[in-house]
Amino acid sequence: MDMAIGKRESLTANDWTAAALDALARGGLGAVAVEPLAKSLGTTKGSFYWHFTDRNALIAAALERWEQRDTDRVIAAVDQTPDVATRLRKLLRLVFTAVVGDPGAGAGSVELALQATATHPLVAPTLARVTERRLAYLTSLFTELGLSQARARDRGLLAYAAFLGHAQLAHSTPQLVPAGRALSSHIDRLIETLTAIED
Amino acid sequence: MDMAIGKRESLTANDWTAAALDALARGGLGAVAVEPLAKSLGTTKGSFYWHFTDRNALIAAALERWEQRDTDRVIAAVDQTPDVATRLRKLLRLVFTAVVGDPGAGAGSVELALQATATHPLVAPTLARVTERRLAYLTSLFTELGLSQARARDRGLLAYAAFLGHAQLAHSTPQLVPAGRALSSHIDRLIETLTAIED
DNA sequence: CCCTGTCCATACGCCTCCGTATGGAGGATT
DNA sequence: AATCCTCCATACGGAGGCGTATGGACAGGG
Q: Rounded to an integer, what distance in angstroms lies between the CA atom of residue A156 and that of residue A106?
């Protein structure tokens, strides 16, 4: 979060995009507003309209940037760990853990912000792509684990829904979600239930 | 949805609250705006400021009304069905089903809208109460099913997170959620996983 | 030394929403 | 019939956001 303080030589479009993403995470799409962002960057609208044609252009850039960054993260969490079962457990533990704590610019904040304005013409396609990509990956893991195609998709959906809901709870009512050691063991049992294979 | 058309004798505060709740469900807290609501009700701000002192008063009324209505629903879904296991299954099936379909004023729309502005001073306490109440009930069901206190709470959290996430998915990317018969069997398997008791 | 291009500040008009002030229509009351 | 009370329409001022239109600062090349 390198923003707002210190005199900069000259702002770049990237700076604006980063600030927009930050605002998106902590205030929703409505917070991606030119004049407030300018103030938080210590500049004026004049700068913005030099780098971007439009507010929509900024939103589009922020969404693209998020989609990119997010994909990288998922891929990074996938790379190692050859065994499928432990890979799945690691992935679930990672995402379920990442989402609690910092309720401002936390990991899942952008998702939540976007869900709130899912019908927005720029948001909808981005959200659909990201969701489908994650769902496909989850499904493939369950498939490799021995589930049929249909059941793997079911489990993928359930796991992803649980993830989204968990993020929501951690964000809106953090006092109802375990913390510390309790969180860790809670996630353990959660993973146990989600990955149980009864035949 | 008795609104917007037909000449009414005189509007009541209830009419405004209903319209506000509707707007909240389909456009978030930001959509609970006096002038647009007036237009949709076929009247003007003059009417509103007669019945309410403030926009905040309207928001508070809508939230209270939602909390009330929601509680009634949950209770209604609980009443009959003596057997605990089938009661849990019925409840889950009901809420998971209710959330798909109509992506406008659907069942879970208010929840989603509120999550988006969970930090709002009027929203936060309402949301916390509702969430805790539902969670407590779910936990009690799992307890009656034979789980320990801690595990029951874990399952309650998981089930509720799954519900929230499912609602989110159904709302933002409905094309990724099964429909029709596929939805029914999907929910079956989902319930199976969520209510599995291995000892 | 001037000139050109980059980057930004300031000022403006427009729109939407909030909240207030004020007056008026129409039924109820006496 | 005159008056009062309920409910609403209209008009206003202010705040905040978008986008445009300029002009200026500052660097580098000629």
A: 23
Cα separation, A21 vs A27, in Å, equals: 10
* Per-chain mean pLDDT for chain A: 90
CA-wise closest residue to B191 among B113, B89, B78, B98: B89
Best CA proximity match to A99, nearest among A35, A16, A177? A177
Query: For the whole model, what pTM was predicted?
Result: 0.91
Contact indicator for A104, A25 with CB cutoff of 8 Å? yes
Instruction: Tell me which residue has tokens 């991606």.
Output: A32
Residues contacting nucleic strand C by the 7 Å CB criterion are: A 8, 10-11, 38, 42-47, 50-51; B 32-36, 45-46, 49, 53-56
Q: How far is the C-alpha of B28 from the C-alpha of B115, rounded, in Å?
A: 9
Task: Tell me how far apart the terminal alpha carbons of chain A are, to the nearest angstrom.
Answer: 48
Distance CA B62, CA A48 (A): 38
Residue-wise pLDDT tens digits, A168-190: 999 999 999 999 999 999 999 99
Q: How many CB atoms lie within 10 A of CB A165?
A: 24
Residue numbers in A near B178 (CB within 8 A): 157
**Element at A145 (helix H, strand E):** none
Contact B193 A189 (CB under 8 A): no
Q: How far apart are CA B184 and CA A107, in angstroms?
A: 32
Cross-chain residue pair A165–B169, CB shorter than 8 Å: no
Per-residue DSSP letter, B80: S
Q: DSSP letters along A56-109, please?
A: HHHHHHHHHHHHHHHHHHHHHHHSS---HHHHHHHHHHHHHHHTSS-TTT-TTH
